[in-house]
Amino acid sequence: MSHLLPVSDTTASVVLLIGMAVGVDYSLFYVRRAREERALGRSASAAVEIAAATSGRAVVVSGATVAIAMAGMFLSGSIIFSSLAAGAILVVVVSVLGSVTVLPAVLAGLGRWVDRPRVPLLHRLTDRPPRLWPAVLRPTLRRPAVALLLGTGVLVALALPATGMRTSLSTIDDLPRSIPAMQTYDRLTAAFPDEGAAHVLAVSAPAARSGEVRAALADLARRVSGDPLFAGAGTPEVSADGTVTRLSLAIPDEGNSDRAKRSLELLRTTLLPATVGRVPGATAAVGGDTAASVDFSRGLSDRLPLVVGFVLALTFVLVLWTFRSVVVAATAIVLNLLSVGAAYGLMVLVFQHTWAEGLLDFRSTGTIVAWLPMFLFVVLFGLSMDYHVFVVSRIRELALGGMPTPEAVRQGIIGSAGAVTSAAVVMVAVFSIFATLSGVEFKQMGVGLAAAILLDATLVRAVLLPAAMTLLGRWNWWAPAVLRRRERLEPPVGELVRA
């Protein structure tokens, strides 16, 4: 991939993260269904065929939805996100190909030996009928309207803090002060404030105007000398050809602080136009950590609606085409947006409002890392659709077989809950490890991903989805006439299922 576009140094980590997540999911979906079919008396080969026709189809659709979600990052305008998108899409495609070729071949070859040797004690749990999920579903299916209202209310309440989200790039100021090096850094910055954060001015002008540029910068230095938002000016540096001049303006505050951002705004809107802006032919730009954070955050915020719209539109079309139902597609979009919104709100509460600053050992700057909202949206939306497609595929299979929708919902969720829960537990455990790392961006990513997957696999799949589908009844499968067609399973798999 690096021969086609620049690759970020974090792409390998994202490939590992996404690859493990979807790989574990797809394997569990297959093995679980093959086990169920063998329990019904099918031969090992017939069980694998049915698993391929049912879970395999869900894997292909899930992989396509995850890839579509990841492709939204190509619209971010950032080469870093394009690199992450390319890596994530590649590993998903490889996982899907392996799941429809290597995985069924291995399962067919192993036959019943896939369950050998059995883990002592634990294997007995798989031989018993499930008890937890029927107990959880019982009140939901008995009072679906109440369950839907309460569940939606919980997710909306969790999502509300996200309306006050503020973003910035992570800097050295975000590292926890329990690190000895950071304690030394703080003492040095307090003793020498002009050696800390700074705005860097770069002025380009014809060489003949270099004297005027230096005079303008000297005027600028005088203007900021008494301003508490600044800590002094450095010495101008001029390029060998005299066309570019650079000047550093130190600030007494941390780079991501509100005061630092106010000084940047003052510099760009007032001080520069009044000094360098009066030099004919001169153009000026402001860099530094504060400027990079503000500009990067603004650029991603401007692009986020485009990315969200792209992902939602293509996902809706794909789910609509797969399930031949407008209602199922719309329900999937709404439920996944609720879980993503709840994850955003929890991140804001934990990191922006410092609810867990001591517990997670981080130093809050009152912001969320700028690239996380877009990254978390595409990852969470893709992984949530992974579960949604698998569960709804099972419900749809039962409904097309003539089972009433409420019973199809109950049996479909009970039948798929074990695989979904197991996959979610693995992912939550892996994502939680990120919360133990030093960088605040990893902590925020770990908490956001783990919280969203946990909510999605429990509250969304066990309460909101069954409640919504039970209330909708036959309307779940409504679609325009152009999309309607006779649903059937192709023989010989169809014959095996009907048998």
Q: In brief, what are we looking at here?
A:
This protein has two domains: 11-170 and 293-498, Multidrug efflux transporter AcrB transmembrane fold, CATH 1.20.1640; 198-250 and 257-287, 2-Layer Sandwich (Alpha-Beta Plaits). It is 66% helix and 5% strand.
Lay out the secondary structure.
Layout: H1 11-39, H2 44-71, H3 79-100, H4 102-110, H5 122-127, H6 132-142, H7 144-159, E1 167-168, H8 180-191, E2 198-204, H9 210-225, E3 232-233, E4 237-238, E5 244-250, H10 258-274, E6 283-287, H11 289-323, H12 326-352, H13 357-360, E7 368-369, H14 372-400, H15 405-434, H16 440-472, H17 493-498
Parallel strand pairs: 1-7
Antiparallel strand pairs: 2-5, 2-6, 3-5, 4-5
Task: Summarize the structure in words.
The protein is mainly alpha-helical. The chain folds into two domains: 11-170 and 293-498, Multidrug efflux transporter AcrB transmembrane domain (Multidrug efflux transporter AcrB transmembrane fold, Up-down Bundle); 198-250 and 257-287, Alpha-Beta Plaits (2-Layer Sandwich). The protein contains 17 helices and seven strands. Strands 2, 3, 4, 5 and 6 form a five-stranded antiparallel sheet that branches. Strands 1-7 form a two-stranded parallel ribbon. A hairpin with a 5-residue loop joins strand 4 (237-238) and strand 5. Helix 6 crosses helix 16. 43% of the residues are buried.
| Count, helices | 17
Largest sheet: 5 strands, antiparallel
What's the CATH class label of the largest domain?
Mainly Alpha
Shape label:
elongated
